[in-house]
Structures are given as C-alpha cells and as structure tokens.
Amino acid sequence: MTEVTRLYSYAYEVCEGKIDVCHEVKLACQRSISDLKASEDPDFPYYFDPKDGIKFERFAARFRHLEGELAGEPFILMPWQLWAFAQILGWRHKSTGHRRFKTAHIEVPRGNGKSFMASVYAIYALSCDGVQGPQVYSAATSQRQARIVFDVARDLCANEPKKFIQGFLGLEIRAHDIQLRKRKDGFLNRGIFSSLSGWAFCG
Question: What is the pTM of this model?
Fold first, then answer.
C-alpha cells in the first residue's frame, strides 16, 4: 500500500459503501478521489503531496490523550482524521506551491475529541508547519469557549518532556498564550497561539 492510498483509505471505504456516512461526507470523499485522479492531468492546477499529512500523523502521535479510556495513550489518528488532515495539508497549487485549502469544516458529535484534535493541530501549526511568524488562534463567541482548545493545548504540552516542547519545538507555555521562539540557521522565528472571544472581532 502506498502512502497516498493509506491516507485515502477512509475515502475509498466510504465510496465503496463500507462506511456509513451522511451525503455531504460522501460527496467530499468522492470529490477528493476525483481530484486525485484529475491531478495526473498536466492542466489540473493542483497536486497532492502526502508528506505533510504523514508528518502531521507522526507529530500527533508524540502527544498523549488526556481523558477517558485512552488517557496516557499516544494520539493515533483515526482513518477519517488522517484523511481530513491530509486533505487540508497535502493539496497545493502546481504553479505556486501554496496550499489549496484555506478553510475546512469538520463537524463531529460531542464527546469525539474535537478540542483535543484541534489543539494538536494548533500546536503543529505554530511549531512545525514551516511558517515564519505564525499566528494561531482559537476563536469562539465567548472567552470561555475560546479557552477550551487553548487550555487543552497547554495541558498537552505540560504532559510532554521539556526537551521536546521547549528544545525541539521551541515553545514557551504561558498562562494566556503559547509562544514560539525557535532559532534555526541563525534566524529567530517567533510566533504565538492564543484564544480570541467574539468581542475581539469587533476591534
């Protein structure tokens, strides 16, 4: 099995009727498979690169679940999560190399670890996505809601060795934000992850 096939295994099983999903999810899976085939055409404007999806999968596995039966276990992406993040991270413009997708809608029932999943992605976007001066925000209509993802991210970092969080990722965990200060090849990359409530959008 190739890496692309593995990243797309959820979409293939949905389209083969092996996984029961809603109509919208089935359409999304069908579109992603159609786009993958279309990307072989030189005139198609996008290409799929599996390496960023695989990189995120390995990154996520460095963190451990905080609650429930899986508490203390590594965060192993489920097939649907692997497919979803591979879509977000892997599709790029052939002409510029920039990411194709800038917005994603992921909707799952309560109790399925949305905040945990979003927190891991926020840490990745801050520290490992190759962006200079990254600014990552958890936004909601109230400060309490916005803090949920941030607080989970802070707890995730607090449960991992400082050698990994501070040394390798270059993160400083503070009460109201997580800051990136990582020097590479003589260049200091600074970034921030914090929460924003509804009033902040009115300024």
Answer: 0.92
